[in-house]
Amino acid sequence: MKLYVNTTSPFVRLVRLAIEEKGLSDRVELEIVDPWADPKAFLAANPAGRVPTLITDEGHAIAEAQLILRYLDQIAQPSVFPADDLAETLAIAAPAIGATEASTAIIIGRKSLPNFDTDMVGSKRFRSIAEGLKRLDGNLPRDFADRPDIANFAAVTLLDYVLFRFTDRDWLKDLPALRDWRERQKGHPSVEATMPYI
């Protein structure tokens, strides 16, 4: 299999966490692309020009992180979407994924509007991030050591992305439970192997 990635995308990280936790690393070739450069082979696989995009062994191109996660659950365990407490797990993951989408919207918005952060849309996106983090602080996911799942994937991805992209803000100052939760995930192999970088 081949996974089109870049090194900063939080949605790529969601998929890479699953690949690591499912022991699929030796079956998936990572190809780093610049989605903004519209590489021909990448656009042939995904006309939307978005990472991640997975090419299966059979040659099927699957775009969008949630769809790729569904496919990976079909071919390898453990499941990212646990059956025993699925609704609770998804309820924890949802605000983290929403806040991650808001974070990437800011980064993209800045490419076209220099004052994006302070206009109406940018301000709302920052509010979404803060609210998502606050909700996680009040409803923590399991630790990775207990069980990897979509909730802790989404939480660690959001946290590390906002700390990586928005260094001028102290996101965790008033969120002690979430800060302690992130500290406990340090050293976990999948978390360390998938950290964003430029």
From TrEMBL:
<dbReference type="Pfam" id="PF13410">
    <property type="entry name" value="GST_C_2"/>
</dbReference>
<feature type="domain" description="GST N-terminal">
    <location>
        <begin position="1"/>
        <end position="80"/>
    </location>
</feature>
<dbReference type="InterPro" id="IPR004045">
    <property type="entry name" value="Glutathione_S-Trfase_N"/>
</dbReference>
<dbReference type="Pfam" id="PF13409">
    <property type="entry name" value="GST_N_2"/>
</dbReference>
<dbReference type="InterPro" id="IPR050983">
    <property type="entry name" value="GST_Omega/HSP26"/>
</dbReference>
<dbReference type="InterPro" id="IPR036249">
    <property type="entry name" value="Thioredoxin-like_sf"/>
</dbReference>
<protein>
    <submittedName>
        <fullName>Glutathione S-transferase</fullName>
    </submittedName>
</protein>
<dbReference type="GO" id="GO:0005737">
    <property type="term" value="C:cytoplasm"/>
</dbReference>
<dbReference type="InterPro" id="IPR036282">
    <property type="entry name" value="Glutathione-S-Trfase_C_sf"/>
</dbReference>
